[in-house]
């Protein structure tokens, strides 16, 4: 009985399939436009298959990257870093996609001829193509421009997988970059970052501009000597995109080896903030034409563009810093740990995906045009340009900076000029001409070489330059703090000043940092966290309704206990009395913008 029932099911399935096929054939005979619909359906199915394959490849790569990172946490290799291996994984997948038949779908190419025969000087955004099937009215298809000039003019079959796997600058700028910047700000050592903010801004604004100009001039001289058809504008644009540094590998090694915090802050701060300068320089140079005069309006437009881009990037960074400064203290211990781990995981996956994405795009991109001499000249130019701005700026800063930037730190800053995803994204944003394709290909090779060479040799360079790390760096930092505090005591005859007793930072000598501390301790911390003193203690009497409204239950309990114990009067801020107003800094993890090292 079971065998007969199973046979009847097979017969019913076969009959239903036959009926469906017959109906499709009948529909095709009565509807001449059915082949168009079937072709569109087939293409949609193929594209869906390609998208699924891409997701599978990248998820498998991310799993492999996570396993590699776990291995490197337990077995550190001196000259190999997981970022370099991530790039290798992407290169292998790109090589596989380029020279195999994975992702090739059936397609046809038609040479479109203009209908009105007018001259087209710019590539159109849309193309309209009329198709006239048999016994059917004309059907119009609209095609949108999704990429510039393709390098595969001789390629007949459409490699849809390659097109979809190519690095997308917009995905990088809008999806992958913000989590990385946010995680950097959330886990930032604020004290050392803001102490070095003057030096960081000097490297960001002066150094990035000088680097782009020197690189552009050297490359223009090289192109003039070897008779390459590159204009001065193109070389300045090339120099501006290469001025963006991304020493993610170096910073990872710094963290593993626990390098001195000031050096870490200088390298990190420059890499985070100079992206905005590189974007503005490249866009301003790219929009400037030879027939256009650079007048005051153009200068104001460039300044406005810079403010928009710079504060867009910095907003993400400072949002994370403020979240870590205020919101973090309102969370439970478990929530604090989970949020920190979550942002670290998101940042790690984004960085890994970016370098894997870059590796895949090197082989599958259609905009490849190689020039070995141009590449060698580029490597020489970026090293010279970085040296030209690192050493003079450090010499200028050391005139008034205490402690000074030592010579071995300067050498390490020169060595940390890796190029990464930002330069790659800016280069591949426009590859519509042969020269742009040469610049994009050269940029990709510069990124790969600097990640492998500089990233792999970072630990060796730290030992070679005798940069203190680990316990040595920690002991020196503690000794420096003790020396600063000793100088503060010596200036007062060895007696403990009110600021020492209260825990005030000995660097707090500037007017603005001192005022910010008072404002943060008296208003911002009580308003946004459960920190004490409460707003009821710090605000004037006429603001008491406002203070009660924004005082939490936990703060109110502490306030009530203080009133009952009679200790409220001793805690009340009173004018500029250092014993009363500064004592709150002991328990506050405040934003350390004091003692800025200019």
Q: If you had to describe this structure to a student in words, what would you say it looks like?
A:
This is Sodium/hydrogen exchanger 6. Belongs to the monovalent cation:proton antiporter 1 (CPA1) transporter (TC 2.A.36) family. Its main location: membrane. One of its GO terms (molecular function) is sodium:proton antiporter activity. 68% of the residues lie in helices and 3% in strands. The chain has 598 residues and is an all-alpha fold. Among the domains are: 166-333 and 374-468, Na+/H+ antiporter like fold (Up-down Bundle); 508-587, no CATH class. The strands form two sheets. A two-stranded antiparallel ribbon has the order 1-4. It has a two-stranded antiparallel sheet with strand order 2-3. The longest helix is centred in the first third of the chain and has 41 residues, at 34-74. It is globular and about 95 Å long. It starts with a helix and ends in a 17-residue tail after the last helix.
């Amino acid at each position: 009985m079971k065998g007969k029932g199973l046979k009847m099911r097979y017969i019913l399935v076969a009959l239903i399939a036959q009926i469906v096929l017959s109906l499709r054939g009948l529909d095709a005979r009565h509807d001449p436009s059915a082949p168009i619909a079937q072709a569109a359906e087939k293409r949609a199915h193929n594209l869906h298959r390609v998208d699924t394959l891409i997701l599978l490849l990248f998820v498998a790569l991310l799993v492999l990257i996570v396993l590699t990172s776990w291995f490197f946490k337990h077995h550190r290799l001196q000259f190999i870093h997981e970022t370099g291996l991530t790039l290798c994984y992407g290169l292998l997948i790109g090589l596989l996609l380029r020279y195999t038949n994975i992702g090739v779908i059936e397609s046809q190419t038609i040479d479109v001829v203009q209908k009105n025969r007018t001259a087209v000087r710019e590539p159109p955004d849309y193309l309209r193509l009329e198709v006239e099937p048999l016994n059917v009215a004309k059907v119009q298809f609209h095609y949108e421009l999704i990429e510039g000039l393709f390098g595969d003019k001789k390629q007949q079959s459409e490699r849809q997988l390659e097109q979809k796997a190519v690095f997308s600058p917009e995905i990088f700028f809008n999806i992958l970059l913000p989590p990385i910047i946010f995680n950097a700000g959330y886990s930032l050592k604020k004290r050392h970052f803001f102490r070095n903010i003057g030096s960081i801004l000097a490297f960001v604004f002066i150094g990035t501009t000088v680097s782009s100009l020197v690189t552009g001039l050297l490359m223009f001289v090289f192109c003039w000597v070897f008779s390459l058809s590159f204009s001065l504008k193109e070389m300045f644009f090339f120099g501006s995109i290469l001025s963006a540094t991304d020493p993610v590998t170096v910073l990872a090694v710094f963290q593993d080896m626990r390098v001195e915090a000031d050096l870490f802050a200088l390298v990190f701060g420059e890499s985070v903030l100079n992206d905005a300068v590189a974007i503005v320089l490249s866009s301003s140079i790219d929009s400037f034409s030879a027939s256009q005069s650079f007048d005051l309006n153009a200068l104001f437009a460039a300044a406005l563009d810079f403010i928009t881009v710079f504060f867009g990037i910095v907003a993400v960074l400072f949002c994370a810093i403020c979240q870590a400064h205020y919101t973090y203290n309102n969370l439970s211990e478990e929530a604090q740990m989970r949020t920190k781990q979550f942002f670290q995981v998101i940042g790690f996956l984004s960085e890994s995906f970016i370098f894997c994405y870059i590796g895949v795009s090197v082989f599958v991109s259609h905009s490849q045009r190689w020039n070995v001499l141009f590449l060698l000249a580029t490597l020489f130019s970026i090293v010279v340009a970085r040296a030209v701005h690192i050493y003079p700026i450090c010499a200028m800063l050391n005139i008034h900076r205490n402690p000074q930037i030592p010579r071995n730190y300067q050498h390490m800053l020169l060595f940390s000029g890796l190029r990464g995803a930002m330069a790659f994204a800016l280069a591949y944003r426009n590859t519509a001409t042969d020269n742009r394709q040469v610049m994009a290909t050269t940029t990709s090779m510069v990124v790969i070489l600097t990640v492998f060479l500089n990233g792999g040799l970072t630990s060796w360079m730290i030992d070679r330059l005798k940069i203190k790390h680990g316990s040595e760096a920690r002991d020196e930092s503690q000794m420096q703090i003790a020396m600063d505090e000793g100088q503060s005591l010596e200036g007062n005859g060895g007696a403990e000043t009110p600021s020492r007793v209260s825990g005030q930072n000995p660097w707090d000598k500037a007017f603005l940092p001192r005022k910010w501390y008072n404002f943060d301790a008296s208003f911002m911390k009580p308003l946004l966290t459960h920190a004490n003193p409460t707003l009821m203690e710090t605000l004037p009497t006429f603001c008491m309704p406002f203070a009660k409204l924004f005082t939490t239950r936990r703060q109110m309990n502490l306030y009530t206990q203080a009133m009952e114990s009679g200790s409220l009067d001793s805690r009340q801020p009173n004018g500029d009395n250092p014993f009363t107003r500064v004592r709150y800094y002991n328990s506050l993890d405040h934003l350390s913008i004091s003692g800025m090292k200019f």
